[in-house]
Amino acid sequence: MMIQKRQLLVLALSLGAATAFAAATLDQPAPAFTATTADGRSVDLASLRGKTVVLEWTNHDCPYVKKHYDSGNIPAQQKEAAAQGVVWLQVISSAPGQQGFVDGATAAKLNASRNAAPSGTLLDPTGAIGKAYGAQTTPHLYIITPTGQLAYKGGIDSIATAKKDDIAKAEPYVKLALADLAAGRKVAQASTRPYGCSVKYSS
């Protein structure tokens, strides 16, 4: 009887955690959101219908994020995506007092210093957007189709290290997924393992 009660308690806690920290589902509508950007604009996902959207969870102090920005890898992908009409949005879900938390002005300065070129930077200090998508790491990438369906979720590439030298050897998952969508194909590798620092949600 005691074991049964304990099992029920564990199950209840698990269900509660799952409810609080959902995960976006492939080939289903991407979770809706409205967010304030670093420059004070309001972005509503619904208003971006008709465009491919990339969501990139980021934390400037994370070594894995530094790998892809200091090398120029993510900035180059942001620019390439923009040239193809893709909306690339950074998302900062670090809570106040946690690593990676910044205000809008600081986020803008960081992007300028790193030659980054996102379409916008979404500030998510409550973690509401991150938890709706199930974002686990920085970086963690999601791609939404022009019809609002989730087409990709996972890592930026296939080699889970903080070494810049590994970028050239890695399979560039996000670039390949965007190429599939641009060609009218279903994304071949739609779900991959994200890697990086944990998203610093409020405890």
Largest sheet: 7 strands, mixed
Do you know the CATH topology?
Glutaredoxin
Helix percentage range:
25-40%
Total separate domains: 1
Q: Determine the number of helices (DSSP H or I, runs of at least 4 residues).
A: 6
CATH architecture group name:
3-Layer(aba) Sandwich
What's the overall average pLDDT, rounded?
Answer: 91
The class by helix and strand makeup works out as alpha+beta
Order of helices and strands: HEEEHHEHEHEEEHE
Oligomer: single chain
Could you tell me the radius of gyration in angstroms?
Answer: 17 Å
- Morphology call: globular
- Biggest sheet, spatial arrangement of strands: 2-1-5-4-3-7-8
User: Looking at this structure, what is the CATH superfamily?
Assistant: Glutaredoxin
Unreliable residue runs: 1-20
**Briefly, what CATH class?**
Alpha Beta
Q: Gap between N and C termini, in Å? A: 33 Å
Beta-sheet strand percentage? 15-25%
Count of individual beta strands? 9
Describe the structure.
With 203 residues, this protein is an alpha+beta fold. It has a single domain, classed as Glutaredoxin. Helix content is 32%, strand content 18%. It has six helices and nine strands; from the N terminus they run αβββααβαβαβββαβ. The chain has helices at 2-20, 63-70, 73-83, 104-113, 128-133, 173-182, and strands at residues 34-37, 42-44, 53-57, 87-92, 120-123, 137-138, 140-144, 150-154, 197-198. β1 and β2 (42-44) form a beta hairpin. It is globular and about 40 Å long. It starts with a helix and ends in a 5-residue tail after the last strand.
Could you list some keywords that capture this structure?
18% strand; globular; Glutaredoxin; 6 helices; disordered N terminus; single chain; alpha+beta; two-stranded antiparallel sheet; 203 residues; seven-stranded mixed beta sheet
